[in-house]
């Protein structure tokens, strides 16, 4: 939390806090360690909610869940360059420090007023890249040299195929965050379902004494679009069509619920819906239409994210997908095209197909 919060935070007793709150602002590894040590001794549980800022209701739902179950919640706000590809949107990624600080202070008051929580937001961790990469930032290239954590093969599939450095960046920064904060529990959103599989592997394979908690995807009430910091890029015209991915996944879910188990039928339902919406949009012409490309639609094993030909109903599966919303071709006079002039936006979403209990008798 560089400029905005730095300017607006009070610095009483040498302890920086978010304005009008008891939420500590920690910027360095040593500051977190100093804050953390007493809680190791007094056996108060500490939760970490890792974020890249630009907070929305999805992030707040993770913090609420963390406060219910832990004495202290630490929220990290750090836009980690290592998980952005060289041609991705690092430069334009939304940074809303002041609004984030206000949202956290508001939520902390809500948590204090609600008697059902074990804890509140105790601290935000907002490091610089120099702090997070003490040996120097290794770069965003696929062949960058440096100290990385890689989780394969799961990190190479799906999102990893489209974003080859993404899960390396995520696993590396999460390993650092976990080592710095030493949380008992970490909270992640199901919206990034493959990320949750990667993090669970990281915790298992490196024997980290951490429980990974996955919270449901928060969606827009009106049409179910998964909340995402990148939605600000869309602008109203593309925002209206963006639920196409969720609707396609729901069509596939309906096929599964209706008894289909094979890939062709389940995913075929999603593909048909996406193709129909694309045809409808294309027919509208450049002044009105929205163009998008389906990056992938997947039906995968919940533990490995490997593609499934047939769903084992005892185990279930994960329906997921990514679409790229293309820039508006012929904007109207004064049309709001979204943050940064409405660049291409890659949206992801997923639905879990639950394993159906089989009767033992
Ligand atoms: N709609 C959502 N519901 C629940 N959790 C979410 C939602 N969106 C993001 N999260 C979770 O919040 C955490 C931080 O995510 P992040 O800061 O990247 O936000 P984001 O909205 O996913 O951003 P982006 O648009 O860049 O993907 C992750 O664990 C992510 O899964
Ligand atoms: C987990 C995370 C904060 C790591 O930078 C990021 O990938 C995110 O916000 O989902
Ligand atoms: N929520 C995942 C972060 C990213 O797309 O970079």
TrEMBL record:
<dbReference type="GO" id="GO:0015940">
    <property type="term" value="P:pantothenate biosynthetic process"/>
</dbReference>
<keyword id="KW-0566">Pantothenate biosynthesis</keyword>
<comment type="similarity">
    <text>Belongs to the pantothenate synthetase family.</text>
</comment>
<comment type="pathway">
    <text>Cofactor biosynthesis; (R)-pantothenate biosynthesis; (R)-pantothenate from (R)-pantoate and beta-alanine: step 1/1.</text>
</comment>
<dbReference type="GO" id="GO:0004592">
    <property type="term" value="F:pantoate-beta-alanine ligase activity"/>
</dbReference>
<keyword id="KW-0547">Nucleotide-binding</keyword>
<dbReference type="GO" id="GO:0005524">
    <property type="term" value="F:ATP binding"/>
</dbReference>
<protein>
    <recommendedName>
        <fullName>Pantoate--beta-alanine ligase</fullName>
        <ecNumber>6.3.2.1</ecNumber>
    </recommendedName>
</protein>
<dbReference type="InterPro" id="IPR003721">
    <property type="entry name" value="Pantoate_ligase"/>
</dbReference>
<dbReference type="InterPro" id="IPR014729">
    <property type="entry name" value="Rossmann-like_a/b/a_fold"/>
</dbReference>
<keyword id="KW-0067">ATP-binding</keyword>
<dbReference type="Pfam" id="PF02569">
    <property type="entry name" value="Pantoate_ligase"/>
</dbReference>
<dbReference type="InterPro" id="IPR042176">
    <property type="entry name" value="Pantoate_ligase_C"/>
</dbReference>
<keyword id="KW-0436">Ligase</keyword>
